[in-house]
Amino acid sequence: MNSKNLIQIKQFCLHHEIENTFITELNNYGLVEIIILDEDEYLQPEKLPTVEKMIRMHYDLKINLEGIDAIYHLLNKIEVLQQNLNTAQNKLRLFEHYQI
């Protein structure tokens, strides 16, 4: 994997003015994946919006890591259920269209 496409955690934490240990704790909870290359730690760029949401939850809303973990999993479950609902609605519309 090429580090040019990755976000260095040290720089990310400096930019957001947070401790590196916060990202490590998110990794310990399985909420983010830390990629280690050449003894540096990186995040995938597509995960940044999710990590930034977690930072806001923790630092702005004072939600602890256990709460962030629960919220993250519930939001993922809602997203899956919404996708299933959209699929079912599309199938129903198709079925209704052929019934006319």
Mean pLDDT: 94
Biggest sheet, in brief? 3 strands, antiparallel
Proportion of residues in extended strands: 5-15%
Structural class: mainly alpha
Radius of gyration: 19 Å
Q: Which regions are unreliable across 5 or more consecutive residues at pLDDT < 50?
A: none
Helix fraction, binned, reads 55-70%
Shape: elongated
What is the N-to-C order of secondary-structure elements (H for helix, E for strand)?
Answer: EHHEEHH
How far from one another are the termini?
54 Å
Helical segment count:
4
Biggest β-sheet: strands ordered side by side in the sheet:
1-3-2
**β-strand number:** 3
Give descriptors for this structure:
100 residues, single chain, mainly alpha
Describe the structure.
The protein is mainly alpha-helical and 100 residues long. The protein contains four helices and three strands. It starts with 6 loop residues before the first strand and ends with a helix. Helices cover 65% and strands 9% of the residues. The chain has a three-stranded antiparallel β-sheet.
